[in-house]
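USER:
Try writing one entry.

ASSISTANT:
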Amino acid sequence: MVFKRHAPATLIAAVIIVVSALTFLSGRLFSGLTSSVETGQFELMRSILETSLRDASDRALARAEMVAALPSVKQLVAERDREKLFAEFGPMFQGQKDRYGVDQAQFHIPPAQSLLRLQDPTQFGDDLTRFRPLVVAVNREKTARKGLAIARSGPAVFGVAPISDAQGNHVGSFEFGLDFGAILVSLKVAYGLELSLFIEEKPLREFARGVNPAALSDQNRFGRFLRFQTTNGTLMGGLVGDTDISAVSEPTNYVRDAGRVPYGVLLLPLRDASGQPIGVMAAARDFSGSREAAGRSLIWQICLAVFAVILLAVVILTVIRGALLRPLEIVVARFVALTSGGEARPIDDDGFCKELQPLVDLNNRIVARRAQEPVA
């Protein structure tokens, strides 16, 4: 083995292995931090969606209870006077629809029969028992309720309040329904999310007879779902497919690229008041910030690792060659000269390490002794 070649190579190889291992572990650590950040983003997205739906149902119920408590409503519903109800509350509904995204408003009579739809006054008298469990429950239990449902005019977030006459007898109920489209737009404006609402096709076609036929077209079909509302059809079409939403029974998330941009996608299942699944809400957020930060971190780690390897290699070569091999070469050369009858010269011991000092002293003593010997 040639120490001059093998020793530095061995040490440099060890440095490369150690630095590479540290870089790998550091990369894993930063990857874990990135994953943790994205998990937090998904939790925030879920909280935003659930809070938004809960707030929407609270607003719908508050409006419904205010209307249901009016003395004129109590009297007109007890009398089942559709014309006066529409004359008094039709303009109010139109104002709510234009300004606040109220999509539906309807009076019912027990057990669950439509008395008046303010959004479509020509359609009334139909039995809602099969597809409006929320209305059935309110008229059966005589207590206010809120939740999601698919109505004749389409899916919405509802608040339903019972109505009693002046004597306290239950005479019916009233509901406000907030449009999902307005909710999606408000979330996009407030939080920068892109969203889509997917509704089960079978109940939508069966019960939502008053929706725009364009919403039921084949281009909106995703497996057994129809995309009923979206804030960005092109983008969401590339992020959410029928296989993604077909088996969603609990909140699900994943990261997927669209146009070379990574997006975090959250799928939130939607259920009606009876707990039956009616659809899925999908939300997407740009995750390029966290992914780019992770990429930059990896590049910096690699650059620092390369710099560390080069710096340590230079240090190793300098120490071995300058502090060990070069002084050792001088000592060896002097001893070779002594044994071969060459010129005996002392060694200047400045800069020699302590480990070589005994050899330097031995050489200098031999040279001094020879200098004292008489010349033959």
About this structure: The longest helix spans residues 3-68. The chain has ten helices and eleven strands. The first strand starts at residue 102 and ends at 109.
